[in-house]
Amino acid sequence: MDTICYEAYKNLYINLTNRCSGDCIFCIRNFADGVHGYNLRLSTEPSIDEVIEVLEKQDLSKYEEIVFAGLGEPTLRFEVVLAVTHWLKNRHLKVRLNTNGHVALLNPEKNVILELKNVGIDFISVSLNAESEEKYNELCRPIHKNAYRVVLNFIKGARKAGIDIRVTVVNMFKIDVDNCKKLAEKLDSEFHVRALYESANNEIY
Q1: Spatial CB neighbours of 30, under 8 Å, sequence gap ≥ 6
Q2: pTM here?
């Protein structure tokens, strides 16, 4: 059975896809099949109904957050994120999205920030991982051009819309953590440094 939901850090995580719009040099996908003892490789991507069916079997009240974060970029399945968030918010649960911030590139026909705001997303954690576009392209290897600027604009737009945002970076020698922190402050966002082993664009914690 594929692992659609898994537990860690008093949270429940939702694994929607193994696909990603980047190929970070430190991504856990390059070294392992999952985290916390869970195999997150999917044979097929779960539908909205399949995700909800799994969630219905859980005691969701015991979790601090329900988090979209697995072995890929959740917003590649933006409609699923929106639909499942709507279902969760109807049950008064706190919902977080862990993302690489490429959502506007992946869903160009949508006003992604407005849709996330309207569905009631509580918190977004964005993996920035670089203090400059040049460094970002070297480390994160996005498939889309101008991805770094799109990520910055997404963070700015989400904050302007009133969504709580955290910017994260991996603690590795190639990343200037101090300058990333200053950038996060300019973006009016929380800042978090995660250990290299936490890896991946979706920093699973």
Answers
A1: none
A2: 0.92
